[in-house]
Amino acid sequence: MKIFKRTVSLFLAFCLCAGMLLLQPQSTVSAATTDTPTTTVLRMYSKSTYNSAIHVNLPKGKICYVKNIKTGNNNLIAKNTRYSTSTSSDDYASPYASIGLYAKKTGKYKVTYDICDKAGKKLSSGKVTVYVKDDLPVKSIKFDGKELTSALTTKKSGKLSVSMNSGYKLKKITVTTYNKSGKEVVKTIKNNSTLKLGEYAYLSDNSYNDGSRYLNTSLAARTRITITYTDKYTKQDCEYLYTLSRLAK
User: Fold this and answer.
1) End of a domain among 71, 106, 132?
2) Burial class of residue 194 (count of CB atoms within 10 Å of its CB; 0-12, 13-18, 19+)
């Protein structure tokens, strides 16, 4: 699943619609099998470019390309932005193509394309439903009664409250912090419950035989909050990420 990003007055806040823009797949080429499904529906914002908006799995064992990309509407621009193709048929081969999108206006669109071999012969075709909507899923997210900001907080804990806009369903809240060793600790909490902020920063500390050492950490102890919700247009699970920070121990 792919993710699309949108900043919301926090260190990190982006929308991950069903894992990187890709939702429930309907494969257009049965011969293609990769970890990422072929895109059949996605949600994006207007006046933003997404170079890898649409993922298309290509057949293994032959050189193939995506051709005849059409949107049927001048308000949505689509272009083949990437492809990886080869004659290999082994298990590690993952031939694919990407179609980038730019939407001038909000609306519901269709993108169609053909998958052709090296000689230009059509092997199959695909269709993607594109929802271009600018309304935000999360209405508000508050910690200790105040809207989240990018500023460092002095609070150690507080009530976390998430309010969704109409049509969006909150599914779960996941919190990621770091322990004293700098390793991630992940847990799920309920809405309107007490959130205890992380005390420690991430830490990467590596020593080598020649006596050299590489250390990477931060002044801030960051608590990452992942809001999983159901998108009202695609009906697929998406994510918004937020970060709360305090000075680390």
Assistant:
1) 132
2) exposed
Establish if 184 belongs to a structural domain.
Answer: yes
Indicate if 124 and 196 belong to the same structural domain.
no
- Dist. CA 221–CA 223, nearest whole Å: 7
The one-character DSSP state at 81 is: E
Give the C-alpha separation, 113 to 65, whole Å.
10
Residue 10 to residues 14, 26, 145, 217, Cα–Cα distance (Å):
10, 35, 16, 20
DSSP-assigned letter for residue 169: E
Q: What pTM was computed for the model? A: 0.77
We report the CATH number of the domain holding residue 188 as: 2.60.40
Strands 220-230 and 237-247: antiparallel
Q: What is the pLDDT of residues 203-242, one digit of tens each?
A: 999 999 999 999 999 999 999 999 999 999 999 999 999 9
Residue 28's nearest CA partner among 3, 62, 54, 1 is: 54
Closest CA to 223 of 11, 8, 4: 11
